[in-house]
């Protein structure tokens, strides 16, 4: 090494005197350092092999969901049904129900709220000899390569040093509104699970298809996870899209029942009044009867209008239900998709060569600065 550095110093001094660097001489210097460049390259390559062979096998499963268009056959059929039922004047067939844009679905799948619900779904693992939740898998059964444990070592040491320190807990009273959390809160295991699930799920939109890919260390677990994710996604999207329409339907239904009760009450008052004053000819009684009749007509008209709106809302709920059919079922993978041994080996070999060359140029710059400032 000293001989090489001495030869490099001569090259630098010659270049400084000539105020130029000859490419031929530079290449000769690189060749002279080829041994050390190879050592650096092989070191990086060896570290890469350690990463490859300490990483667990991963199996990838792919499935596809077909998303039906909301303005297709179903809307026309519902519009025809509205006309037949006498509700055509309410414009049911032309109303567009607000829906979740399909472009947002891949992002929604990776959201914490979605993954928090998903992590408690169960998948069968051969290692556990049972169906366990994804939360249990990530925190108890998931295996990692050597470098993952080395990266986590400082935090583990810090946790051990602070384990004797008693931290004062703070209780957060998270307000719930209509059965839903207004603020998301996660413990350590849940945060770790969400982070890991994001690396194991990939959802892409291709025209009207949702391509769902899942990755697990076991073939059966990968296929089951894919099926669970597809089913859970359909249910989750249905709940989001229908939430507004269902609430609207329930509200109108309550008002309709109230109007029906008032119709029955005014009808009973009118009937009782007529029975009590039958055969009596009085203008005052006639006026009272007309008033009761008008109240009944008003309440009945309101009830009839609400009943039509309830039917309209019922049809909108049906129309808003997302139709997602399985276009391609998840198939049990037969071979591991990761780690890609040949590809990664080639990548680490090339990376090692690049780092070796950078090592030479770093040494060149450092020696050049040293010689320059020494002669100043």
SSE layout and pairing:
Blueprint: H1 2-18, H2 23-32, H3 34-54, E1 59-67, H4 73-84, H5 105-109, H6 112-118, E2 122-125, E3 130-133, H7 134-141, H8 146-161, E4 176-177, E5 180-181, H9 188-200, E6 201-206, E7 209-216, H10 219-276, H11 283-320, E8 324-328, H12 341-375
Antiparallel strand pairs: 1-7, 1-8, 2-3, 4-5, 6-7
Helix pairs in contact: 1-2, 1-12, 3-12, 7-9, 10-11
Transmembrane segments: 36-54, 341-365
Membrane topology: Multi-pass membrane protein
Protein name: Lipopolysaccharide biosynthesis protein
Q: What does this protein look like?
A:
By secondary structure, this protein is an alpha+beta fold. It has two domains: about 1-55 and about 340-375, no CATH class; about 55-160 and about 175-340, Bacterial polysaccharide co-polymerase-like, CATH 3.30.1890. The chain has helices spanning about 1-20, 25-30, 35-55, 75-85, 105-110, 110-120, 135-140, 145-160, 190-200, 220-275, 285-320, 340-375; strands spanning about 60-65, 120-125, 130-135, 175, 180, 200-205, 210-215, 325-330. The strands form three sheets. It has a four-stranded antiparallel β-sheet with strand order 6-7-1-8. Strands 2-3 form a two-stranded antiparallel sheet. A hairpin with a 2-residue loop joins strand 6 (about 200-205) and strand 7. The protein is elongated, with a radius of gyration of 37 Å. Residues about 70-100 and about 165-170 have low confidence and may be disordered. Keywords: Cell membrane, Membrane, Transmembrane, Transmembrane helix. It holds the Pfam family Wzz. It is found in: Cell membrane. GO terms for molecular function: protein tyrosine kinase activity.
């Amino acid at each position: 090494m000293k001989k090489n550095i001495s030869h490099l110093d001569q090259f630098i001094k010659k270049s400084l005197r000539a105020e130029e660097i000859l490419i031929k001489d530079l290449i000769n210097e690189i060749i002279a350092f080829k041994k050390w460049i190879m050592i650096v390259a092989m070191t990086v390559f060896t570290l890469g092999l350690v990463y490859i062979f300490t990483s667990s096998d991963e199996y990838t499963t792919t499935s596809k969901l077909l998303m039906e268009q909301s303005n297709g056959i179903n809307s026309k059929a519902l519009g025809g049904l509205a006309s037949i039922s006498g509700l055509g004047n309410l414009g049911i067939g032309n109303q567009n129900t607000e829906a979740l844009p399909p472009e947002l679905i891949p992002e929604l799948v990776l959201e914490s709220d979605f993954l928090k619900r998903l992590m408690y779904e169960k998948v069968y693992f051969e290692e556990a000899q049972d169906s366990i939740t994804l939360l249990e898998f990530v925190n108890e059964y998931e295996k990692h390569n050597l470098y993952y444990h080395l990266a986590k070592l400082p935090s583990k040491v810090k946790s051990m040093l602070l384990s004797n320190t008693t931290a004062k807990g703070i209780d957060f009273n998270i307000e719930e509104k209509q059965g839903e959390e207004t603020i998301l809160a996660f413990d350590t295991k849940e945060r770790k699970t969400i982070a890991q699930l994001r690396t194991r799920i990939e959802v892409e939109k291709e025209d009207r298809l949702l391509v769902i890919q899942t990755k697990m260390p076991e073939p059966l677990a990968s296929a089951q996870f894919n099926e669970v994710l597809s089913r859970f996604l359909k249910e989750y999207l249905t709940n989001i899209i229908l939430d507004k329409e269902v609430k609207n339907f329930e509200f109108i239904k309550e008002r309709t029942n109230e109007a029906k009760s008032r119709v029955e009450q005014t009808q009973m008052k009118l009937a009782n009044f007529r029975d009590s004053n039958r055969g009596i000819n009085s203008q005052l009684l006639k006026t009272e009867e007309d008033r009761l009749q008008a109240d009944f007509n008003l309440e009945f008209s309101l009830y009839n209008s609400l009943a039509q709106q309830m039917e309209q809302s019922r049809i909108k709920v049906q129309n808003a239900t997302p139709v997602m059919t399985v276009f391609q079922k998840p198939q049990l993978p037969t071979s591991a998709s990761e780690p890609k041994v040949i590809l990664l080996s080639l990548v680490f070999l090339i990376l090692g060569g690049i780092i070796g060359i950078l090592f030479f140029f770093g040494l060149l710059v450092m020696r050049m600065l040293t010689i320059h400032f020494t002669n100043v």
